[in-house]
Amino acid sequence: MAKKPVFDFGLEQAPRVRERQEWMEVAQDTRAIGAAALENARILAIDHVEPGPWQVRRDFRPEKMAELVESVRAQGVLEPILVRASEGGRYQIIAGERRFRAALEAGLTTVPALVLEIDDVDARVVSLMENIQRDDLNEMERAEGLVSLKQLTGQTWEEIGQRLGVTRRHVLHLVSLTKLPESVQALVREGRLSAKHGRLLSQVKNAAALSALAEAVAECRLTAAQTAEVVKRVGGEPGFTLEDVGGDPAQDPAALRDRIDQLIDSVRAREKERATPGDTASLVHALSEMRRALAAFPMTALTPEAARNLQSELDSLIQAADLLRRRVIPPIREG
Fold this sequence. Notes:
By secondary structure, the protein is an alpha/beta fold. The protein is 54% helix and 7% strand. A hairpin with a 5-residue loop joins β3 (81-85) and β4. The protein starts with 19 loop residues before the first helix and ends in a 9-residue tail after the last helix.
């Protein structure tokens, strides 16, 4: 017996699916199909719809959801969600949970939906294919979705890449994120590190050093190029700290003062511009070095001249910290 139409349009021309490969093809174009088929979608009571168990997305950021809620409140749901029939006249969401949540929060009582007649495995495949291609999915979620997709379909990375319109190399780069420590994955999931940062950091084989380095890179907002340099310098040494981002600590307090002065002058030269991530990282490191250098010279052990020099260093430290605050750069973590 032939399968029923994939989408419950009530049209004779509705697409039919014979192989899982065709599910992949259908899923690949769900957004285009959804936008074109809005007028043919079924209107479901929103309290009869519930999230499915195959949601790849974990991160529903409040600020992004607020934007979507406002859009839905003003224009309604412009792209149908994908669902399948469940027990008791209810429907499970296959794709479109953000739109569903936004509709709920906006106070809508109905939601447009395309109803698929589909089993658990194929529902998971369609959900993954649809969500992986979403621009607002974070790179960690995308990587996890790719791994699940391969497990479900048995396809090679190259075949999956072809379905998604990306190279096998790109797919493997993303998938490599799933091998990072959970603490580093969390930084990628939160958007504090990019996939490229993750790939660079994966070269550090010592788990303790990797986790500490990832936190330092995120804290200092280093670019990919800066991260590559730090990884090369740090290698796989454990015991990594925030101060190591800038290199070997300077021993001469006077040299530290000159370095801080140069950094401050560099930032001041751009009166109306925000300091760059590189400025921030350099200042963080210089100030950390300054704290360590000053801690080694107790006030009671200093001569009057040395005390004046120390006060000068403290003034520079305060001035730099104030500059950081006025430039609206994220605060330095003390420690």
